Sequence to fold (268 residues):
Amino acid sequence: MQKIYRSLLATLVLSSVSTGALAKDVTVMISGGFKAALEKLAPQFEAKSGDHIILVSGPSMGKTPQAIPARLARGEKADVVIMVGDALKNLEKDNWIQPGSRVELADSPIGMVVKQGDPKPNIQKDSDLRTTLLNAQSIAYSDSASGRYVSSQLFKKLGIEDQVKEKAHMIERTPVASEVAKGKYAVGFQQVSELLPVPGVTFIGELPEDVQYITRFAGAVVAKAEHRQEGKALLDFLSSTEAQNTIRATGMRTVKVEQPVKQPDTVQ
Fold:
C-alpha cells in the first residue's frame, strides 16, 4: 500500500512539473483603450489555458519612447500587440505583424470627464458641448487617436477652433483623467474605456453621436513572437462572445459584424 501511495505521489509531482513546464508567459504590448478589459479578462484566460499574461503598456502612436512602435523598433519582445486599428495597419505594412493574424476586438467612443466634485456640465447636444468648452478654463486631450480627432476635427465641427486653441492642451502618455483629477485641467477627453478606471473624476458622458469618433481596437500576433499559438488563442478568446459583456462594461462597444449582401434568387 505504501508503494502505491509513493507511486501516486510521484505521478502527481511529475504531472505538476509537466504542467508548469508547458505553461507560457504571453507578453502583450497594449495601449490604454483596451487595457481595462484585458485586465478583467486575463484571469479567465489564464485559468482556461494555464498560460500567464504579461502586460507592457504604451501608446499606439506618438513620439514617446513608450509607444508600441518604438518599443518594437528597439527590439523589445512581445507575442501580441493590442492597439488602435489604424496604428496596427502601419505595423502590418512594416512587417512587424504575422500576416493574417489581425483580430478585431472592440470599438471605443470618446467621452469627457471633470474633476470629482466640480459641477457637471451638459454635453448631450452639440450646442451644449460647444457652450461647455467655451466656458471651460482649460481642456485636455490625449496624444493618441482620440486626441488627434479632438484637436483636428471636433473643435472645427463645433466652430470654436480659434476660441479654444490657447486653452486646449495635448497630454502625452499620461492618462488624461489623472491630470483632470489633479485639477490641472477643467475638462478632459479620451476614449471612455481609458476614463472610467481613473479615480478622482466624474464621467460626464460620451460625445454627441453626430460629432462622435469611434476608435477600433485590434490585436495581432507579432512576427517574431516566441509563443504564436498562445498569442492567437488569447486573441480568439478576447474576440469571443463570452468576453463581450466584460468589454462593454469597460466602456467599449462590440464590433459589428458586417452581414454579407444577400443575392437575389436565381430564376429557373
Observations:
- Confidence is low (pLDDT under 50) at residues 8-20, 259-268.
